[in-house]
Specification:
Elements lengths: L2 H12 L2 H5 L9 H11 L5
InterPro entries: Terminase_Gp1_N_sf, Terminase_ssu
Organism: Myxococcus fulvus
Protein name: Terminase small subunit
Length: about 45
């Protein structure tokens, strides 16, 4: 499963992007930035 798909699945659990980014395999250094970027582009999160 791609990181993007995993992020979406995690995001749909609780709608907290910051908590969805790290288990998806993205950097722990700036989860807010990554979450914001993905939540803005994923159709389920807009």
């Amino acid at each position: 499963m791609a990181k993007q798909e995993f992020f979406v699945r995690e995001y749909l659990k609780d709608s907290i992007g910051k908590q969805a980014v790290i288990p998806a395999g993205y950097s722990e250094h700036s989860p807010e930035v990554t979450a914001s970027r993905w939540a803005g582009t994923a159709p389920c999160c807009r």
